Amino acid sequence: MKIGVVIFPGTSGDRDLIHVFRNVLEQEVVELWHKDTDLQNADIIVIPGGFAYGNYLRPGALAKFSPIMESIVAFAKSGGFVLGISNGFQILCESGLLPGTLLENESMQFVCKNICILPHGTTTALTASLDKNRPLKIPIAHGQGRYYADKEELARMRINGQILFRYCSEDGLISEVVNPNGSMENIAGICNEDYNVFGMMPFPERAADDELGNTDGRLILESLIRFVKGTA
Amino acid sequence: MKVTVETARELGLLPEEFEMIKKILGRDPNYTELSIYSVMWSEHASYKNSIRWIKTLPTKGKALLAETGAENAGLVDIGDGLGCAFKIESHNHPSAMEPYQGAATGVGGITRDIFTMGARPIAQLNSLRFGDINLEKTKWLIRGVVKGMGDYGNTLGVPMVAGEVFFDDSFNTNPLVNAMSVGIVQKGMVVSAIAKGVGNPVYIVGSATGRDGVHGTTFASASITESSAEELPPVQVGDPFVEKLLLEATLEVIPTGALIGMQDMGAAGIICSTSEMSAKGKHGMRVHLDRVPIRHQNIEPWEILLSESQERMLIVVKKGSEKKVEEIFKKWDIPCTQIGEVTEGNMLEFLWHGELVANVPAQSLVVGGGAPVYDREYREPAYFNENKKFTIDQVDEPGNLKEIAYHLIKHPNIASKRWIYEQFDTMAGNSNMTINFPSSAGVVSVKGSGKALVMTVDCNSRYVKADPEVGTMIAVAESARNIVCTGGKPLAISNCLNFGDPYNPEVYWQFVKSIKGMSRACEKFETPVTGGNVSFYNQSSIGGKDESVFPTPTIGMLGLMENKNHHTTLAFKEKGHMIFLIGRSRNDIASSQYLYSYHGIKNSPAPYFDLDEEYAVQQAVLELISKNLIQSANDVSDGGLFITLVESAIPRQLGFDITTDAEIRTDAFLFGEAQGRIVVSVSPSRETQFIDHMIAKGIPFTTLGHVTKSEVRIDDESYGFIADIKREYENAFTTLMEGK
To answer: Which among A9, A20, A209 has the least Cβ separation from residue B333?
Structure first.
């Protein structure tokens, strides 16, 4: 199993992801520089959080033009597994690999804290090993994480089971009060129609290391690895 | 243009300083040269009114890897072949005028200081002071400063791990914005701020140079007045994206071994970096200013020299290694331009299209070289003795203690600053150990080792105003106490000395006393001063009347936790655990938040403090932690014992039931701020061992009570349930900011 971690200028979550995949989950990791086009035979491509191109214009707007993105789009179209976290999620939406878009938080402020999310359905690679009745405590850190899609799109996503995570309370209640950014329907994570491209605003790798006292995020990354291993 | 003593005066130089310059050069300076001296000899760059006293601070310690003040930041040995670079710095004046950019570039500047040494920044901290929170202007400043710090630091991906915020009317015009950065470097990879080796090329890397911040250093060396807005030099504008690229590129260049030296450009830009690096290396430098990439046309050579454009570095490269260096900066799309070379001698020669526009000895510009050093007059202000006349008997003990308790819980100096810190990325880097284990100080894991760094920023400005010497000792002691409560051993400090006008003898007295207090406390705790900065002229001159801010010598302290298993949180763990107070309760309410805001009594001495007692209490707690005898530790500070207990109770939504002491007035017992006290909780299975240990050590301690399921009870009276107290504590500040 080989994980490819993409690095754009301004990416900052790469080191955290590499640490978790390599030292906590014991997987082989390759770094993919945005100016390259070779995905180095990675089985899963992960686009980390951060501020690719300083989020100039809007998050993801410039990153989608980097040479590596062409290869990632082709990889995804041929069924390859791609996960975007936070800024990575924004980039995947901008490149058209995921539906919808991420707008500025309703509060107009950056927000970083532990929140809870509830998995919906357990049929995708990202959620296969999760318990849909158990909320996961995972950190968020973003200024533009308000998920938006038009009504038809949203309806389609619901029917197809593309909504993977919703913000919830500690005991799993989904309500406006626990929506940290004003996302439609409390959406925190989604996938594409073919269930191989994933985006989520919370950072699973920030809840993966025992010494930080929270490992709920590790379950998500483990689910992905286990599933992809099974299909390989 | 012919310069005269009048020109010198306009540039902020004294007539005698103008004479000194003529003597150094053996001729009249030209305008460019005079501008150079005006910024390099400004208070901000030369420390001319503070250096004499700064030099008396203790700077020796076996863990120090760099001489104090000799590099961009302090450097401390943390074992395993690693060093920790850290420094705290002010950005007060820019933040007062343009809070967003002022605070943002403050973060940018201090972070550059860290990675310029070769260290990867792993944490940042902040210490903020604002005026009356009910003023719209204060809210505007808070919003700007918080967003500025957040946008910059969040983009860099460096977590904010601790901070403090304090409000007092004295900061209405002039807020304080102090930022600290901490980084880790492999010992062999440390880069020095030095220029040497004749013929080695000198490069400028990073952003193009514009007019921003020209004379910013001189601006920082004067008071903010009603007309400051018109006199304001263009404030520096930061671009955290460029800084992030600069950071990564720099850290990639260093292991190639191609660098001789590197310094970031902050205050006084190119002139500061070229002169300091040359003076340090005892070499000269020839610099072609016309080769510096510029942002706008018609910029004058002196403006290029003085510009404080952000995200720039000066590097000296080993001759023959140019290609290696250029390629790495190209990979990161960072401009990298050779602008000169190292020369023999010690002259700095600045050329403009081949013509020599300035020719000055590097040594004559820098601190410890030719920069002026002044003794300033100081005089004890009358208020100091007036304060001492206060006794607790002048205040009748109030009947309704619950009202005081809720007044304090909701006070902006005490209530949760969630509204602020949730705008900072506190978890980037995957190593902040206090998110899920709240502690008195920040804890950052050193990945791949059993160790963690412990860090804090502290200063109670109210105590320092009341008694600068004792107040500053308390600032050091409180920093150490926070580190100790967390399970770390204090190692060293960096300081940020925020004061008023040094030419005012009463202000200078505060400064001198503060330095004396800092020296005594740092010697006791064996925490040498590794660097920092001085910010004078923090005052407002409104309607012809000077009002200094509360003197604020902010302490940024670094500690080391040798064993991550010793990480101790401030949170009570379980119902039924015993609560003890280590240290002695006192009949003291002096300078407490309670006395100041509830009774409105502004003049009283600093709270009770005894340096030796304090040290003994801290040593006892460190031993308790290493013997695994306590479940939690939290120090008594702002708001007194009651607030300490509330802070420990909130994380797990537990309550507490305690009994006060008949010998001590109840308001002093609960809300007094006497120093040298730490609240610990102990599980019943360890109680005997704990008591035996404390008795053997001879440290005073008392049983306060026990942890309960959710109710807060004092002397058998209910103070409410923790869920309600928590709601008040966590929402009070947001309500003040948002009005909801």
So the answer is: A9
